[in-house]
Design goal:
The structure is a single chain. By secondary structure, the protein is an alpha+beta fold. 27% of the residues lie in helices and 38% in strands. The protein has an 8-stranded mixed sheet with strand order 1-2-3-4-5-6-8-7. Strand 1 and strand 2 form a beta hairpin. The longest helix is centred in the middle third of the chain and has 15 residues, at 110-124. It is globular and about 40 Å long. The two termini are 17 Å apart.
């Protein structure tokens, strides 16, 4: 799957494509930006390449892809489709989506391009439900999900503790 978009806010052509091994460091770098930002992920410490290598390998070239938004060889953001409770056969048609964008490019439409791609790919792969798990304070992600027809499916109140700052998690989902 290859999609190209003229990305007017930064006057670059953006290509959405499956991730390859050369993208791994950029994917982790962008994720770690979210870790060090407030309420973008439940991780509290940056992850290492070694810690995430198996996760990355399990997503490349299979039923659970990662897509990157790139321009001129630079990865600007990414989205992954992941199994939900892998091995539990009754849940085989439900997948989780996770997405992150380079910090200085947030709000420029890259997340929308990535989400559009992931929804199309999830349908092509035969999935029936797609959802995101996010912190209930993550207003930008909530807005993106609602823009694409996701609805609040659940709330886990006060489940996260960031050194005394408490928040919950939402499950936002939709049918594919």
């Amino acid at each position: 799957m290859k999609n190209q978009y003229l990305f007017k806010p930064i006057s670059k052509m953006i290509n959405i494509r499956p991730a390859i091994s050369d993208d791994f460091e950029s994917v982790i770098h962008i994720y770690n930006q979210a870790v060090t930002s407030s309420f973008c992920t439940a991780d509290t410490e940056p992850v290492t390449l070694e810690e995430r290598l198996d996760w990355f390998r399990s997503h490349v070239g299979g039923a659970y892809p990662i897509f990157v938004a790139e321009s001129e060889g630079e990865v600007l953001g990414w989205i992954s489709i992941s199994a939900y409770r892998l091995g539990r056969k009754a849940l085989r048609f439900a997948v989780e989506v996770s997405y992150y964008v380079e910090r200085n490019l947030l709000g420029k439409g890259i997340g929308s391009f990535l989400m559009d791609c992931a929804l199309k790919e999830a349908k092509e792969l035969g999935y029936k439900s797609i959802f995101a798990i996010l912190l209930d304070r993550n207003e930008k992600s909530i807005a993106l999900l609602e823009k694409f027809g996701f609805e609040k499916w659940g709330h886990l109140p006060e489940i996260c503790d960031f050194d005394g700052e408490i928040c919950g998690q939402f499950y936002y989902g939709r049918k594919v």
